[in-house]
Amino acid sequence: SQQGEEDPQALSIQEGENATMNCSYKTSINNLQWYRQNSGRGLVHLILIRSNEREKHSGRLRVTLDTSKKSSSLLITASRAADTASYFCATDAHSNYQLIWGAGTKLIIKP
Amino acid sequence: AAGVIQSPRHLIKEKRETATLKCYPIPRHDTVYWYQQGPGQDPQFLISFYEKMQSDKGSIPDRFSAQQFSDYHSELNMSSLELGDSALYFCASSYDRAGELFFGEGSRLTVL
Lengths: 111, 112
What we know:
The complex is a heterodimer of chains A (111) and B (112).
Chain A: E1 5-7, E2 10-14, E3 19-24, E4 29-37, E5 43-50, E6 55-58, E7 61-66, E8 71-76, E9 85-93, E10 99-101, E11 105-110
Parallel strand pairs in A: 2-11
Antiparallel strand pairs in A: 1-3, 3-8, 4-5, 4-9, 6-7, 7-8, 9-10, 9-11
Chain B: E1 5-7, E2 10-13, E3 19-24, E4 31-37, E5 44-50, E6 53-57, E7 64-68, E8 74-78, E9 87-94, E10 102-103, E11 107-111
Parallel strand pairs in B: 2-11
Antiparallel strand pairs in B: 1-3, 3-8, 4-5, 4-9, 5-6, 7-8, 9-10, 9-11
């Protein structure tokens, strides 16, 4: 079963606004990753944050990790139409290397 | 840069037929993963291989089997196909089992 849960399931914002997506998980992790998927395409890795890190930046992306709350957030600043996609978080459990995926957030950026 | 190559990109089969999907990982990547993604669904992990040995097993039906060959390419064999097997099948590879996955563009299987 999937241990990652993401919210919101869908998010629609105006171009230029910031978008925040959240991910929660249940077990101890080694790291948490965020991926983007354009419709019908393969997933693309965005960022990996390790369990001993609290925040990480990559361009317009900012990821936070709160291991006490078992949650992570992905912030996309100054959104663009090209950011329209589904965003998934994935965690690898301490006990094995199998990635556990969240259900994804569908982000729509309105021009 | 080389990416994960999957073939075929599209496949149409009848119920009860068999299908084989192929995956060529990025060179020097030692781990290959197979995922199934139904319409509007999150990726479901099927199976993975590390250094040509089965590593982890997820929700792979007994009708499916997979293997990784000496050249590191992998094949997913699906038999007795059912309508519910219609999905996008992704292969991914990684250099580090705990690291970033690189996905192929997927093979879209349609079972009629």
